[in-house]
Amino acid sequence: GFYIGATNGMFYGGFFGVAVGMLLGILTGKCSGIMGIMEGMMAGFMGGLMGAMTSVMMLNDNLEAARVLVFLICGAIILGLNYMIYNETKNAKREVLEDQFFTIFWSFVLTAITTWLMVFGPRSVLFQ
Questions:
Q1: DSSP letter at 121?
Q2: What confidence category does residue 26 fall into, taking pLDDT thresholds of 50, 70 and 90?
Q3: Rounded distance, CA 5 to CA 121, Å?
Q4: CB 35 within 8 A of CB 18
Q5: Distance between CA atoms of 13 and 43, rounded to whole angstroms?
Q6: 52, 55, 54, 28: which is closest to 41 by C-alpha?
Q7: By the 8 A CB rule, do 64 and 6 touch?
Q8: Are residues 128 and 12 in contact, defined by beta-carbon separation less than 8 angstroms?
Q9: CB 30 within 8 A of CB 37
Q10: Which of 40, 14, 16, 46 is nearest to 27 (CA)?
């Protein structure tokens, strides 16, 4: 949402972020039942709009520096999450053996869609 909002405006950035956030929230929350799914939907909705809103509000004030900081902070959060999951499950026996094709494939697809929207996607009135 942040990056699409910075290049295409609040509407497109917000709802792109909402769509991706809710989809990933539902996929990761479904293992915890309906409460996990609802939490994933709520987090995706709020996070998608907040990212786009932040980038549009910062258009006139160090957006480039914010871009780098957002990337670094999100990376640190993901690394912390991976470390926490590793610590919680390192002694557990693996019940399902899976490969990483799903993660790699969808990471590539979402990166391609995001890049395409940033370059060729519709623009708001502010960016025309």
A1: S
A2: very high
A3: 11
A4: no
A5: 16
A6: 28
A7: no
A8: no
A9: yes
A10: 40
Measured distance CA(34)–CA(2) in Å, rounded = 28
> 33 φ, ψ to 5°?
85, -160
Q: How far apart are CA 31 and CA 102, in angstroms?
A: 16
Query: What pLDDT, in 10s, does the model give residues 43-66?
Result: 999 998 998 898 888 888 888 898
Question: Which tokens belong to 10?
Answer: 């609040």
Amino acid code (one letter) for 83: Y
d(CA 117, CA 119): 6
Longest CA–CA separation in the chain, Å? 55
**3-class secondary-structure state, position 81:** helix
The tokens 């519709």 sit on which residue? 122
Which residue's entry shows tokens 């370059």?
Answer: 119
- Measured in degrees and rounded to the nearest 5, phi and psi for residue 58 equal -100, 10
Length of the chain measured in residues: 128
Q: pLDDT digits over 74-104, tens only? A: 899 999 989 998 998 888 887 777 788 988 9
Q: What is the spatial distance between Cα 45 and Cα 7, in angstroms, rounded to a whole number? A: 20
